[in-house]
User: Fold this.
Amino acid sequence: MHIPISKTILSKKDITEVTKCLKSGWLVQGPKVKELEIQWSNFTKAKFSLAVTSCTTAMYLCLKALGFQKGDEAIVPAFTWISTANVVEQLGGKVIFCDIDLNSFNLNVSEIEKKITKKTKFILPVHLFGLSADMDPIVKIAKDRNLIIVEDAACGFGSFYKNKHVGTFGEVGCFSLHPRKSITTGEGGIITTNNKDLAEKISVLRDHGAVTTDLQRHSGPKPFVLSDHIECGFNARMTDIQGALGYSQISRAKDILKERRFIAEKYYKHLNTLKWLDMPFKHKEYVHSFQSFPCLYKPKEINIDSILYINRKRNNWMETLNNDGISTRPATHAVHTLSYYSKKYNLKPKDFFNSWAASLCSISFPLFNGMKKNEIEYVANRITEHKI
Assistant:
């Protein structure tokens, strides 16, 4: 038996919608992308949704549209996918890393205020693995200190905080449609905002700076008249092929999310007696979407003296599971330990200890739509058989 960490399941409708798009002859950003954007807004309750090429592109465009300037500082969790920090660097800014809470893997809100300087302009909270960051205190800090919130909701589709969908707390939210996400278009991203002017600016920036999209122009009375370009923009347009796939998938979003939560609950039930494994954080005011199932491996207390021992033991266990046909991964990386950032900012792993610990001591288990009962039980049994 081989059980991957993730698997993309395409329905007959998915394939039919993509095939219809191919046969239509309209392959670039067009009607299917528009339908996906409408359905995304309907689900998240954001007033505006804009499809782009990736979540990384989404964050870059949002920071650009919000006036990010060279030398500006942005607070970024040290434990996240690297693109959260990279977009700040690409715009000539300075990344200010902030440590995480080891229970939730999200920003430790008590550390944020300590990181703010006169040059701090943005906070980039990440809703990691489908669990919302603690947004009330983040919103309060941003309001009190006149900071702009750009939510990295790459993993956040279907995630709620106090009955409100993530990606709708700040000025903008940025979602990923990568194959490891609940809804996928292969590669792709979605931007959400409630600000009409900002939505219009981002729409222009993603399309070479054009004020009129191809769909608007070709659907209008004078398709032969080219658009004016009012910004120095980019080509960040999603194709209609991707839009067709995303539109088909989001039409069954509730079922997709229900199944992921069902699988997660099976893990909770099977593994809840293991004192050495902390499963994903749960709270009544949070609705988890379980983009993945990251756990914290604790055969002994995690501290500066034990962390490398635990890491070696975890890696050996991951190799054993791999030999048993079970794919696992570290939850993600501690960005401040990666060569580019550690060298540029002269950072040591222990500078953000919880993030380092999360990177070295976390383990994500398989969770994907279409995962069979015997696969869930096989994984759970192999976990419980582990000798610490």
